[in-house]
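Weekly structure sync, notes
Attendees: PL (lead), two postdocs, one rotation student
Agenda item 3: pending single-chain targets
PL asked that the sequence for the first pending target be pasted directly into the notes so everyone works from the same version. It is reproduced below exactly as submitted, 175 residues in total.
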Amino acid sequence: MSKPMPNVAFIMMSFFLKCRDIYRSREEILAEVGIKSGDTVLDFGCGPGSYTQIAAQMVQPAGKVYALDQQPLAIKRIQKMSQRAGLDNIETICSDGATDLADNSVDVILLYDVFHILSPADKILAELHRILKPTGFLSFSDHHLQEKDIFARMTVDGLFELTEKGKWTYRFRKN
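Predicted structure, written out during the meeting:
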């Protein structure tokens, strides 16, 4: 990705996302995804954690959520939130794309509202493909892109294939 957004921009974005969450529940969106207890989830570009905490509750007691963002304030916010909520199954990763996770180790990748700013997207998709289990899937949503652009950009290198279109998300499996 590019360099992290300025702290002030992150704080403003976090405020707007809290307002957004009032009108459309993140629980409703994640219910569509099909995260199960025991899953390992990567919330790629987690931002202030709108999905991270909910996913962590969904995968309990044996599952884990990795929350990755390049903005240090996002990582600090996730760490504080997980501590306050008593969620010890969240691990943060401060990175612009490299996960340092093992090959084929993640059941579900959440790629929400960040794809339009990924650069270079092909390298990040290759990294996500590497860590995704053969039976896993990538859940995608980015309101900044039109549907035809989503399909074209997610499938261009043949790493992923669309398997399902839900009300809120697209599901891709690795090829």
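Discussion points:
- The mean pLDDT is 91.
- The chain has six helices and seven strands.
Action: rotation student to compare against the earlier draft before next sync.
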